[in-house]
Design goal:
Elements (H helix, E strand, L loop, with lengths): L82 E2 L4 E9 L2 E8 L2 H8 L3 H43 L8 H12 L1
Antiparallel strand pairs: 1-2, 2-3
Length: about 180
């Protein structure tokens, strides 16, 4: 019994021929390496180089003026009564000592710190109302969808009816009846 010869897997019929340049890698043989000699530069004529010019002397500068600002408190200073150090101290005032403006601090007692940390009634009301609205909206979303979805479907059917389009059957029962009516 003879086995028939199978056709080749790849057939080059109709394949375009593209002429691409071949890649010739660099032929590197260290024993046959030729090194170009370094070029010999001609000696320039020797001319005496002129001395470097000396920089002009500047007139002596005055010592930097000390910033003597008679203002106390200085510009951009925090106002008196500002809380600092996480609310544990308050700026009581400013005073000039040894020619410098020094900040005077006043310690705040613990009960005052606690009272200052409690939010005010408008802040509590705003946060409470915002939280209540968010929770109510989150809980009411499924109920609203159940109420709104049928109304949207009815409106969509009416619009399709006015445009002359028939709505596609939705349930399995409706599809079977539509198929039975189409066969008759």
């Amino acid at each position: 019994m003879s086995v028939p010869k199978a056709p080749p897997v790849t057939v080059n019929i109709g394949v375009p021929i593209i002429d691409m340049p071949a890649f010739d890698p660099m032929d590197y043989r260290p024993d046959k390496l030729t090194v170009d000699p370094e070029p010999v530069l001609p000696n320039p004529p020797s001319t005496p180089t002129p001395p470097a010019p000396t920089p002009p002397t500047l007139p002596p500068t005055k010592a930097a003026a000390v910033d003597v600002d008679p203002r106390c408190p200085p510009l951009r200073a925090k106002e008196v009564g500002t809380l600092v150090q996480n609310g544990s101290k308050r700026i009581a005032g400013y005073e000039i000592q040894d020619g410098k403006c020094v900040v005077l601090y006043e310690e705040i007692k613990l009960p005052e710190q606690v009272i200052a940390a409690i939010p005010s009634l408008p802040q509590v009301t705003t946060v409470g109302v915002t939280a209540a609205v968010g929770v109510t909206a989150g809980l009411a979303t499924p109920l609203l969808l159940k109420a709104v979805k049928p109304a949207v479907k009815k409106i969509a059917k009416k619009i399709q009816g006015l445009l002359g389009r028939k709505a596609k059957p939705v349930s399995v029962f409706e599809r079977r009846q539509a198929q039975r009516l189409a066969r008759k």
